[in-house]
User: Which sequence fits this backbone?
């Protein structure tokens, strides 16, 4: 059986845990080469050590996506370890939740540096190689915050809306040169961040139950479910998908109000 990602050499950010690690696992299983990036070097090394891949198919490097020079160097290292990068998954991001007048300038700047500038830094680093080789694929992990608003989560949705703008702008700019750029918008996902959020309440079990009850199916996504959607979008199974945003939220964003 042909591996779905044979020949793909993926530069993956935010790869040390959660959705990023699940994406690495899924892509390696389908024959891709994966170069993992994360700013937490210890966590990244532990994650990479738990993965299995043939020689030349897996690499990793500690780097902060907000540092353009570090990312350019990491892309160069990826090319040496797994081959020239022809796919990018911008998964790294951060939550910054406040109210508009309470959000500090530092929070605003960090929010945009990580959630928008970081994706651009990585895209800018890989695009020349993709264009020179005749094409490639970029996938930005966005969020349902990219097109909906939850009060008191400012300025996170502002940055995620901007990430969709970046996606569409790059997609249309380079479509004629063989580069596809798309976005994937998860809703709630059962990661450690979600667990930490539930644990911040006096009754974590009740907090978890409230989150589940918001959803039409009574549950939230697993990291692997998001990873499988990412795998499809970075593959050659959707060659005419460009400037698109695939929503994977169990139908939550279509629900007018909870039942």
Assistant:
């Amino acid at each position: 059986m042909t591996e779905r990602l044979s020949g793909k050499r993926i530069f993956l950010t935010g790869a040390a845990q959660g959705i990023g690690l699940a994406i690495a696992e899924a892509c390696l299983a389908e024959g891709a080469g994966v170069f993992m990036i994360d700013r937490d070097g210890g966590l990244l090394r532990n994650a990479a050590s738990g993965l299995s891949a043939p020689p030349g198919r897996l690499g990793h490097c500690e780097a902060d996506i907000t540092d353009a020079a570090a990312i350019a160097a990491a892309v160069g290292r990826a090319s040496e370890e797994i081959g020239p990068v022809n796919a990018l998954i911008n998964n790294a991001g951060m939550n910054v939740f406040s109210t508009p007048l309470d959000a500090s300038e530092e929070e605003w700047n960090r929010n945009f540096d990580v959630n928008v500038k970081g994706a651009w830094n990585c895209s800018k680093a890989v695009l020349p190689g993709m264009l020179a080789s005749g094409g490639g694929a970029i996938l930005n992990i966005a969020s349902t915050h990219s097109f909906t608003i939850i009060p008191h989560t400012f300025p996170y949705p502002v940055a995620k809306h901007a990430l969709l703008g970046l996606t569409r702008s790059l997609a249309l700019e380079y479509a004629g040169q063989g580069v596809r750029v798309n976005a994937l918008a998860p809703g709630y996902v059962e990661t450690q961040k979600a667990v930490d959020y539930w644990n911040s309440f006096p009754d974590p079990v009740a907090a978890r139950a409230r989150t589940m009850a918001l959803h039409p199916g009574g549950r939230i996504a697993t990291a692997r479910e998001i990873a499988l959607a990412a795998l499809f979008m970075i593959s050659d199974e959707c060659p005419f998908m460009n400037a698109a945003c695939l929503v994977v939220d169990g139908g939550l964003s279509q629900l007018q109000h909870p039942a």
Summary: The first strand starts at residue 9 and ends at 13. The domain at 9-186+223-248 is CATH 3.40.50.720 (Rossmann fold). The beta strands are 9-13, 33-38, 58-62, 87-90, 97-98, 136-141, 154-155, 179-186, 245-248. Residues 105-133 form the longest helix (29 residues).
